[in-house]
Specification:
The complex is a heterodimer of chains A (about 325) and B (about 450). Chain A is of the alpha/beta class. Chain A is built from ten helices and 14 strands. With about 450 residues, chain B is mostly helical. Chain B folds into two domains: about 300 residues, no CATH class; about 100 residues, Periplasmic binding protein-like II (D-Maltodextrin-Binding Protein, domain 2). Chain B is built from 17 helices and four strands. A four-stranded mixed beta sheet of chain B has the order 2-1-3-4, with no helix packed on it. Classes of the chains: A alpha/beta (about 325), B mainly alpha (about 450). At the A-B interface, helix 2 and helix 4 of A face helix 1, helix 7 and helix 8 of B.
Chain lengths: ~325, ~450
């Protein structure tokens, strides 16, 4: 198990070394099974989305990865090696429920948390000063946390999470509680950290940020992993062979031309162009459709409809809730 | 730096820096010493002067009662009626009836209830004068009477101690005092641990912390850090209290404890002076007894044992309190769990109280051996010094206490590490029991 962790993983990850591998993780609390045989790989250097409805088991999984609790079965590999207690210094964790000592001064508190992550005091102080200057927080150093606004405290906590330059950064709903300006600041910071080689694991319900930021995801529902892989591939996997075709022409002409090659789902006539949504018949290709259309209508554009992550999420979870076989369509 | 040390350091420094620590540390001894010195001082003071009108119907006491600082006697042969007494400057009126030598009863009228001290002074003055009168009437020679009169002074001896005089009773009282302070300290600091755990849990910082350190390190760091706060505070208190009480006693009691000066102030006759000296001499053994009790307390031994039992007892209880703090979401919910955890300490106090009257009872023996009560109860036996005759009992008690501390800490740590991550509903005892078997 010390060698390559990717051996058993999906082929698409084969070329990227794994930062984190969860192998057959099981966690039970009494009669309740919080995680049931969860296996997935987080490739190094990217942003990984850990998705799932509330209560699916995400927090339990994160607590196992951060070594807050131990799994009942299975193991966690960090960069190909079984994790040890010392590995916690290579992980940075921002929990969903944020919290700091209210009565403690900001600078002192950040120093304390950094030292608990194994940093030397002097080094921690130096890096904190840099961060505080970059995020214009220097004036807060001697303030107590209770004197700060919620957003300010969140910034302090984010800095504390990343200060020790962790190899793996786990952020649970990192944007909640931030105003749009600070949310953008955090987003830029996440991208910068990825640039510098940090692997980021993002747990969020915000599917917009998943599409925008994540390279890979795993979806957990009811204690089980129901989906994982590259975001691009998953969205494609959930595609319904639906195309948007812009053309100059009316509905009747279009429908006639389309004939048996596809089903016209929707047709809207705009000022200049009309837009048709077409789902291909199961035995036809987009080229066949175009061959049918071209003699009859003037086609201006063709684009496949790739489902939003939001739809993927809902469909995957619903499929898991009803008949698991439906999932692949 | 080691992570546990970092946690200890934070717990210690944040607490010591708090204004409340400074206030408690400085005011504590001031309050204790102030109260003790003040009480002693007040006890010696009469609130106001008393002018006592003695209605001497049989004409036996007139002119014979001795005035004191706060008490002056005036005489009349006829009593005043109520309105006249109210209007008079007298604060007390003593009615000595015709048949006083047979009835031995007087009536004391007052406007405001005089203190027991004043009542006793009036009583003893009258007794002294009436006694003389009876001696005269019955033609008994006062010297003969003085030889006949018998006031027994019972001295206790324990035959196991080579016929030395025994001070067990008094020492037991001192020991109970130590036991009570022990109870107070253990409880106070254990509750601080509970509050600290609860604070981290309700702040939600605990999840950040235990992604860096083991829950056990966090719990022990807090417990040890607060123990150091306790030791620091205790040390400062001992030093300050001792200083203040020495200084305070010296200043306040200077005039009062010097019999020569008291006598000089009273400007009494030679005869009376001699008599007073005799009385002062009679009360002297009491004072010597107190000195003797103090001398008999092996102070280094008692303090060492106090520190040991405080630390071990605190460690035992604070881990349980930490478990309670971890299991609930807010301070109101702690009540239900605190009671059973505190109960053994209270039982300890009750047993220690019994030890005052019966230090040798089996209950006291078992109480001083069983770990949950031993920190409090053993202090009584330690102060009495009797435990040194059976060192094995002391050793057994200490070993059991340490062993139990390890056990409760293990149990508490298992509840703690699950409890700090559980939010929402208040757990039942059964659930807390189940937490112990979750895989950490």
């Amino acid at each position: 198990m010390g060698s390559t962790a990717c051996a058993g993983g999906p082929a698409i990850f084969a070329t990227i070394p794994a930062m984190l591998t969860c192998e057959h993780i099981v966690k039970r609390y009494g009669a309740h099974t919080a995680l049931d045989d969860v296996t997935f790989t987080v490739p190094a250097g990217g942003i990984f989305g850990l998705l799932g409805p509330n209560g699916a088991g995400k927090t339990s999984l994160i607590r196992i990865i951060t070594r807050i609790t131990a799994p009942d079965a299975g193991q966690v590999l960090l960069e190909g090696r079984a994790m040890t207690a010392d590995d916690v210094v290579r992980i940075g964790y921002l929990p969903e429920e944020r919290g700091l000592y209210k009565k403690m001064k900001v600078g002192e508190q950040a120093l304390y948390l950094a030292q608990l992550k194994g940093m030397a005091r002097a080094e921690a102080r130096k890096r904190l000063k840099e961060w505080f200057e970059r995020w214009e927080m220097t004036a807060w150093w001697n303030k107590k946390v209770e004197e700060l606004s919620k957003g300010m405290a969140q910034k302090v906590q984010f800095v504390s999470t990343v200060l020790h330059a962790p190899r793996l950064l786990i952020l649970d709903e990192p944007f909640s509680g931030f105003d749009p300006i600070n949310a953008e600041l955090v987003r830029q910071e996440i991208l910068r950290l990825r640039q510098e080689g940090t692997t980021v694991m993002l747990s969020t319900h915000n599917m917009g940020s998943v599409e925008e930021l994540c390279d890979h995801i795993a979806l957990i529902d009811r204690s089980r992993k129901v989906l994982d892989g590259r975001v691009r591939d998953i969205r494609r996997q959930f595609a319904t062979r639906t195309y948007r075709i812009e053309h100059k022409g009316n509905r009747v002409a279009f429908a006639n031309a389309l004939s048996y090659t596809g089903e016209l789902l929707e047709h809207t006539e705009g000022e200049e162009y009309s837009t048709a949504r077409v789902r291909l018949a199961h035995d036809s290709t987009v080229n066949q459709v175009l061959r049918q259309l071209l003699p009859a209508v003037e086609v201006h554009g063709v684009q496949e409809e790739i489902p939003r992550m939001n739809d993927v999420f809902i469909r995957a979870v619903n499929a898991n809730t009803t008949v698991p076989a439906d999932m692949t369509e | 730096m080691n992570k546990t040390l970092l946690i200890i350091r934070r717990e210690f420094i944040t607490r010591v820096r708090k204004p409340s620590f400074l206030i408690m540390t400085i005011l504590g001894p001031l309050l204790i010493a102030g109260t003790m010195v003040g009480l002693a001082y007040l006890g010696m003071q009469e609130s106001e002067d008393h002018l006592v009108l003695v209605v001497d119907k049989p004409h036996v006491v007139t002119g014979k009662l001795r005035d004191s600082d706060k008490l002056r006697f005036f005489y009349s042969y006829e009593e005043l009626d109520d309105p006249a007494f109210k209007a008079s400057p007298y604060t007390l009126m003593v009615d000595v009836n015709e048949a006083i030598l047979e009835t031995n009863t007087i009536q004391l009228f007052y406007k405001e209830l005089p203190s027991l001290n004043v009542q006793r002074t009036v009583q003893s003055e009258l007794e002294r004068v009436l006694e003389r009168e009876k001696l005269r009437v019955n033609q008994v020679d006062p010297d003969t009477y003085a030889r006949i009169r018998t006031a027994l002074n019972v001295q206790l001896f324990d035959i196991d101690k080579g016929g030395e005089r025994s001070y067990e009773q008094a020492l037991a009282v001192v020991g109970f005092g130590f036991g009570y302070i022990m109870f107070f300290f253990v409880f106070m600091y254990a509750v601080q641990v509970m509050r600290g755990v609860l604070e981290e849990k309700s702040n939600r910082i605990v999840e950040v912390l235990i992604s860096s350190v083991r829950p056990f390190q966090l719990m022990m760091g807090k417990i040890i850090g607060i123990a150091l706060v306790g030791l620091a505070q205790f040390t400062i208190w001992i030093v300050l209290t001792a200083t203040l009480m020495t200084v305070g006693t010296a200043v306040l009691m200077k005039d009062r404890l010097d019999p020569q000066q008291v006598l000089a102030e009273q400007q009494v006759t030679g005869e009376l002076q001699a008599e007073l000296m005799k009385e002062a001499g009679a009360s002297a053994p009491d004072r010597n007894d107190v000195m003797e009790v103090v001398r008999r307390i092996n102070i280094p031994f008692v303090l060492t044992m106090f520190v040991f039992y405080f630390l071990a007892g605190y460690l035992l209880y604070s881990s349980l309190f930490a478990a309670v703090g971890s299991a609930v979401d807010n301070e109101t919910d702690t009540q239900q769990f605190m009671f059973p955890v505190t109960l053994p300490l209270i039982v300890g106090i009750v047993i220690a109280q019994m030890a005052i009257t019966n230090p040798g009872s089996p209950l006291v023996f078992w109480g001083s051996i069983i770990p949950f009560t031993s920190p409090v109860v053993m202090m009584v036996r330690v102060a009495m010094g009797s435990v040194l005759e059976t060192p094995w009992q002391l050793v057994l008690s200490m070993v059991l206490l340490l062993g139990t501390f390890v056990l409760t800490t293990w149990v508490a740590a298992r509840i703690y590490r699950t409890g700090i991550l559980m939010y929402g509903k208040k757990p039942s005892w059964r659930e807390m029991g189940r937490w112990m078997f979750y895989k950490g």
